[in-house]
Amino acid sequence: MTNEHAQMLDRVQKIATELGEYADSVRIFVTLPTENGTSVGIDAGCGNLYAQIGQVSEWLCIQTQYQRNWAIRKDNEDEGT
Length: 81
Known about the structure:
By secondary structure, the protein is α+β, with helices and mostly antiparallel strands.
């Protein structure tokens, strides 16, 4: 981990802790570019771990359904042309 990434991790952890003073749970995800053109993921959180997992899981399910709905609409549009 580069110094820049370590600094970002510290910042994300600090923000998660600050938000945790007002929430039951917090989970923050950040993606940063690397020097070789790939990405590195950073996450931090606090509070109820099971609530964090549940919220992320629900968000993923909803996003998956949005994508399915988009594909169905696109397929219907293509059939109509």
